Amino acid sequence: MIGRILEHKLAREGHRVSWVRQCSALRDALRGGDVDVALVDVTLDGDGLELMATAGETPRCGWVALVEQRNVAAQSRAVEVGAAAVVLKPFKPTAVAALVLDLLQGAAV
Fold it and tell me: How many of the other CB atoms lie within 10 Å of CB of 93?
């Protein structure tokens, strides 16, 4: 449900969105080098944080961890492994869209 909502909102904001549901698909996308920002749910098909810590490749503008508000350990770990931002669930899709835009604009500066 979260993926569909974000996909819809970001596409409406003019972004090209690829929604993947498995760590292996995200790893492939990162290797392709065509990812500007990755929104990674820490529960993605296992451990999204571990994937981002060991992926080797990173999105051009960084990646954002989507974390349950009560999971303080995952919030800290996301920052440790290089998240550009941490978004706590539940969140407003407009806030995530604004964050993505900020990351993209920051990379263009």
Answer: 16
Distance, in Å, from the CA atom of 93 to the CA atom of 108, rounded to the nearest integer, reads 23
Report the 10 Å Cβ neighbour count for 39: 23
Residue 9: closest CA among 91, 103, 109, 104: 91
Altogether, the residues listed in the chain come to a count of 109
In one-letter notation, the amino acid at residue 78 is A
Map out the domains of the chain with their CATH numbers: 2-108 (3.40.50.2300)
Helix/strand/coil for 81? coil
pTM of the model: 0.89
Looking at residue 105, its pLDDT comes to 93
Residue-wise pLDDT tens digits, 55-98: 878 898 999 999 999 999 999 999 999 999 999 999 999 999 99
Look-up of token digits 């900020």: 102
Percent of the chain with pLDDT over 90: 61
